[in-house]
Amino acid sequence: MSNLIRGLMLATAGLTGFAARAADTMENAYWNLPKGVTDISNEVWHLHMAAFWVCVAIAVVVFGVMFYSIFAHRRSKHPVPATFHHSTTVEIIWTIIPFVILIGLAVPAAGTLIKQYDSRNSDLTIKITGYQWKWQYEYVGEGVSFFSTLDAKSNEARQLGSGIDPKTVPHYLHNVDNYLVLPVGKKVRFLLTSNDVIHGWWVPDLAIKKDAIPGFINDMWTQINEPGIYRGQCTVLCGRDHGFMPVVVEAKTEAEYAAWLAKMKGGETVAAAAPAIATDAAVDAPAAAEPVVAEPAAPEAAPVEVAAAAPAAAPAAAGPNGEKVYLGNCAACHQATGAGLPPTFPALTGSKVVAGPAAGVITQVLKGKNAMPPFAQLSDAEIAAAVTYVRNNLGNKVGDTVTADQVKKLR
Amino acid sequence: MAKTHDHSHAHGHDHAHDHDDHHHGPDKGVMRWIKTTNHKDLGTLYLWFSFIMFFIGGLMSLVIRAELYAPGMQFIDPEFYNQMITLHALVMIFGGVMPGFVGLANWMVPMMIGCSDLALPRVNNWGFWILPFAFTMLLSTLFLPGGGPAGGWTLYPPLVLQGGASFPLTIFAIHMLGISSITGAINVVVTIMNMRAPGMTLLKMPLFVWTWLITAYLLIAVMPVLAGAVTMLLTDKYFGTSFFNAAGGGDPVMFEHIFWFFGHPEVYIMILPAFGIVSTIIPTFARKQLFGYDSMVYAVASIAFLSFIVWAHHMFTVGIPLAGELFFMFSTMLIAVPTGVKVFNWLATMWRGSMTFETPMLFAIGFVFLFTIGGFSGIMLALAPVDFQYHNSYFVVAHFHYVLVPGAIFSIIAAIYYWIPKWTGVMYDERLGKIHFWLSAIFINVTFFPQHFVGLAGMPRRIPDYAVQFTDFNVISTWGAFLYFIAQFIMIYNFLRCAIWRKGMVPATSQVWEGAHGLEWTVPSPAPYHTFEDPPHVGDEPAAAH
Prior knowledge:
The structure holds 2 protein chains of 2 kinds. Chain A contains 12 helices and 10 strands. Chain A folds into 3 domains: 2-117, Helix Hairpins; 124-265, Cupredoxins -  blue copper proteins (Immunoglobulin-like, Sandwich), CATH 2.60.40; 273-410, Cytochrome c-like domain (Cytochrome Bc1 Complex, Chain D, domain 2). The longest helix of chain A is centred in the first third of the chain and has 34 residues, at 39-72. Chain A has a 5-stranded mixed beta sheet. In chain A, strands 4-10-9-6-7 form a 5-stranded mixed beta sheet. Chain A has helices at residues 2-25, 39-72, 88-117, 152-157, 254-265, 280-284, 322-329, 331-334, 352-355, 358-367, 380-392, 404-410, and strands at 124-131, 134-139, 144-148, 180-183, 188-194, 199-203, 208-212, 218-222, 228-234, 246-252. By secondary structure, chain A is α+β, with helices and mostly antiparallel strands. Chain B is mainly α. Chain B contains 17 helices and no strands. The longest helix of chain B is centred in the N-terminal third of the chain and has 36 residues, at 78-113. The relative contact order of chain B is 0.11. The interface between A and B is large, with 107 and 110 residues.
């Protein structure tokens, strides 16, 4: 009910106070485009506002005439209709005037568009790959690469009937485990592609959006002016969890960025604290990755706290935490409980495949099957941990431990 | 040309023959509706079918809005949500709006051009009866394991290829809908080109006939394109082709190009007949001839032409080259010019008229006002650099619902209020009609206006759940949607009173509206089962210019 009251109040405020409040609060109002933090996003914002005010001006004139006519030319006031039905002059005038207005909008728009398309002379390049339903970021030439998935708290809260109020989750659905970290003041070029279906990468504050298409490499660029955290999400329907693959960019000063990059290269991070991260270092030496290192990238993205549940009744091995890998990669479809969402997403609990030969499970994870995409992007150790986890938890009790070597052999 | 003419004569002859055989009126009972080749019966069937589909599609939209009432997943699984948005669109477009306009064309085109029936009555019957089967098949997918199609009505691969058992049924249903639309369109073209009453030259035709003629050409041009696109999807999935599969040398973006080459003209298919309806209604209630008849016809023709060269504005973010982006931005903006001409002409028709505001006029004015708002957001969306922000956000959802609901659907409602006295012989309840208009006009804005804001603020479309800052506008929108839906029952009651529970309803005169002009008003109300078996003569007075 309070929603209703709030809704009605808002509607009233929106209708009556819109124009009055417009002027000073337009820039970062929650009902308008953000002005953003790049030169381009500023230009886009001004174009948007220009187009908007042009429309308002036309609307005032056109609707003004219309309502005047409705008032003054109703039968009770104007019983005898005029008989004119044609005027070439007027028609030419109201063909030309819109044409001129449109040219006035098209010229600056073309100018901005040309700038947006000029991705030359970039300082660094990030390759973005869309997956169902997460993003992979590769710092081209730096050997740094990791996945970015919906954060665990949001993921928990967004399950049907979770009982968790999304309002208590910080940045609900706009938070990820690993931020894309970028330096401010540098021209960053993005290359976008996809591993499965078409996705769309959008950060409103940067005013960039482009589709990530399998078999294509698209490019776009940005140059961020202010440090900060900027949030967006996938914009192209990409299957069940389209609404749950956010984009979070953290812009750091150049020095902080350099430190972060060095840390990432040092392999200091990772798999443990953030399952999807797979730096080259981590891939080479997964066993070394256990120490709990606070995620360097994401102070706010609270290290995935997996509440409850002892990780695996199975023999614990050093290496990635199977439960975390599972929650980060598998739970979106198979659910945190392993119950799945039949028939599209089968249950793992009591599954014959899961309880069958380990090789079968590993192969399916590596190669995918039907709607299940391949997860070859995970490291051998991560896959081993996840497979071990599902075979010994979620109601399954196979009792074995899958090793990274087994996975390596089946690749 | 001469050959075509002969051909049509042959048809006209057969047709007359047909009538001789069935001179005693329609069959009794349900067989009347199954066997009928009468344009009025088929028009009625189309309109009922459209009503049912609007109802089903509307229920789906309520499922969507209910889930979006608050952040968090309340009622349904995201996969089912995706099925709802996909089927909502397919049902509303192919089941609601298009059959609605075809129903109106069936009823009114022969009566407006003074001929006895459509040129191809049996094809007309077939075209209609395909529809219930197609939609039964499409909707039955909801009961299959895995549910209905969930890849969006745009059917983009590779996502759509992940669909299960619903996929081939959806493709087959779309093929059937395409066949139905094409037969309907051919029928309209042949009828208009060959069966106009003596003296009715092309530039004397009522604008509704004109807009439908152009719409029919658009349909014939683009429905096969859609059929080709979905067939390629089918072979990609089942026969190992790689039209849209990059791994096999294909191109997923090519599908988008082909789809939108169909899809953009499709948008105009759903709005041009609306232009015709509004151009018919406003002069009647302004008691003044339509301003700029010729330019209205040229404007519709230009819009139809432009509709073929703007498709990639649906794809500004797929990475088309700069030159392409600029071309499609400019061509899209150009559409504002003929559209503007139409709006100005409607205003000029009202200007210094002598207006009354019966329900059809209210809906027509509501159309002009709200469709224009959809046009404004259209201009904003045309600006490619800004579209990078709007694209696939709720701003787009607001935009196309403004042109489709208070656009296309208001015009269908206006048309039914306008012509139902002619069809049924009784006046609808004017007071209820007005209440229906005001509730509809208010709640449609409550539903869709906030979606502009939430889209600008960053909410993407086609998501079942959203970040909490988007809550307020979604709450308003959901209230609007439910109330709008409920308000439509007033209309249904009103129309049922005219069609079925007619006791106590006021009989309509043959003229019905004092300001109305055109051949349909020269026949009695209700219109007899067969009209204009002897063609009327249209004099020098520009009949259509009213």
